[in-house]
Amino acid sequence: MNVFFRDFFSDPVLFMSFGILAVVIVLCLFYVGYFIKKVHDAEVPK
């Protein structure tokens, strides 16, 4: 397991790919929450 962390932090391609993937997942979760909040707070026309 120690070898994995050493390789992870020494390889910039692996580090950046996981970093960018983490940013994309955080943005997706933010927009899902934003959409759900907007739908929940929307006024229904009568």
Structure report:
The protein contains two helices and no strands. It starts with a helix and ends in a 5-residue tail after the last helix. It has one domain. The protein is rod-shaped and about 60 Å long. Helix content is 85%, strand content 0%. The model has no long low-confidence stretch (mean pLDDT 89). With 46 residues, the protein is mainly α.
Domains, number: 1
The amount of beta strand, in percent, is: under 5%
Count of extended strands: 0
Helix-strand string: HH
The helix-and-strand class reads: mainly alpha
Chain-averaged pLDDT: 89
Q: Span from first to last CA?
A: 60 Å
**Major sheet characteristics:** none
Low-pLDDT regions: none
* Global geometry: rod-shaped
Task: Round the Cα radius of gyration to an integer and report it.
Answer: 19 Å
Number of helices: 2
Lay out the secondary structure.
Blueprint: H1 2-10, H2 12-41
Pfam families: DUF3149 (PF11346)
Organism: Pseudoalteromonas lipolytica
Transmembrane segments: 12-36
Short description:
The chain has 2 helices and no strands. The chain has helices spanning 2-10, 12-41.
Features:
single chain; 46 residues; mainly alpha; 85% helix; DUF3149 domain-containing protein
